[in-house]
Amino acid sequence: MALRARQFAEAEQIATNILKSNRSDRHAALLLAHALMGQKRGGEAIAPLERLARRGDDGEVETLLGALLCGAGRATDGLAQLRRTAARRPPYLPSFQELAGQLAKAGQYDEAISTVEAGLALAPGSVDLKLDLGRLLHDTNDFARAASVLTAARDAAPGRPDILNQLGRVLILHGDYAAAADAFRRVLALYPDDRSTRAYLATSLFEQGERDAAEAALRSIIRGQPQLLGRAAFVMAATSHGRFFFSQRDVAKFLGGE
């Protein structure tokens, strides 16, 4: 409950007290690690997690340990730990995700993609792995394949806004503006106040030549949020059917902002 309330210091104290009486308590060690991470002190959780990992195979403990080792500047040890965990069977899928994420951070995109693909070979129905693969393909500019992978993820989980948002962004880059707009509209049906998604929708609409609808979307973005004027101005200027203004005042006047 303390963790969920983001009361990290209190969560740390509770977990520490439990570990004083039982150093091998798995749940307390995991809670302590998350409490320390919440305070940007994740490195302090490495030792108790290492003790716990030595007791036997535990994918959750090992994956968190690998992530903390990487975060503490021990990338070689962290990646080695994550590779061992991903090699275990039955597979612990979050280890594939964490390993791929750490490899991507290190610029090793080919291995990151191969890691997620290996996970999908073991669990072809994993929507989370498909989303991760789509993101990596997006980052490496393979927009056609990213769109295909993310479309499959959307079909498997049509109500997930994170998948719809990622798919829409890829579809814009792939040039399928109508499909992108549809994806963003689906997100907005669930979260009508999501202004970032509405900005992406405006981009899609501009690229389709639907300037009036796009400008209406931008007006709704800055309504009550004048700090978003710059984002709205960028959307207009960066799209092929948008508008460009030389002064911020002119943008504000056109969009009805302050």
Give a description of the structure.
The protein has 15 helices and no strands. By secondary structure, it is mainly α. The protein is 72% helix and 0% strand. The mean pLDDT is 94.
Provide tags for this entry:
258 residues; mainly alpha; 72% helix; globular
The separation of the N and C termini measures 42 Å
> Which percent bin holds the helix content?
over 70%
Question: Beta-strand level of the residues, as a percent range?
Answer: under 5%
Structural class: mainly alpha
Radius of gyration (CA) equals 23 Å
Major sheet size, sense and barrel closure: none
Order of helices and strands: HHHHHHHHHHHHHHH
Quaternary status: single chain
Mean pLDDT: 94
Gross morphology: globular
Uncertain segments: none
Number of helices: 15
Keywords: Repeat, TPR repeat
InterPro entries: CellSynth/LPSAsmb/PSIAsmb, TPR-like_helical_dom_sf, TPR_rpt
Pfam families: TPR_19
TPR repeats: 161-194
Short description:
By secondary structure, this protein is mainly α. Helix content is 72%, strand content 0%.
Secondary structure: elements and pairs:
Blueprint: H1 8-21, H2 26-38, H3 46-53, H4 59-71, H5 75-87, H6 93-105, H7 109-122, H8 127-139, H9 143-156, H10 161-174, H11 177-190, H12 195-207, H13 211-222, H14 229-238, H15 248-255
InterPro entries: CellSynth/LPSAsmb/PSIAsmb, TPR-like_helical_dom_sf, TPR_rpt
Organism: Bradyrhizobium quebecense
Protein name: Tetratricopeptide repeat protein
